[in-house]
Design goal:
mainly alpha
């Protein structure tokens, strides 16, 4: 039977902390354009209307 050698290494984020490396830079928050806020709001409104329509359609026949 052959002898297997098992190598145990620390995860990269632990190695970076111990060696004093700064690691990845924090992501700068950029302001989301107004268009995307409007698009998100429109998506919520249309989803609500779709749910309301399906509810009205199927609750009337009950």
């Amino acid at each position: 039977m052959s002898i297997m050698k098992i190598e145990i290494r620390k995860p990269q984020y632990l190695v970076a902390k111990e060696s004093g490396a700064s690691g990845p830079k924090p992501v700068e928050k950029k302001k989301t354009p107004f268009f995307f806020h409007l698009l998100l709001f429109a998506t919520y409104v249309l989803s609500g209307l779709a749910i309301w329509y399906v509810y009205q359609k199927f609750s009337a026949h009950s």
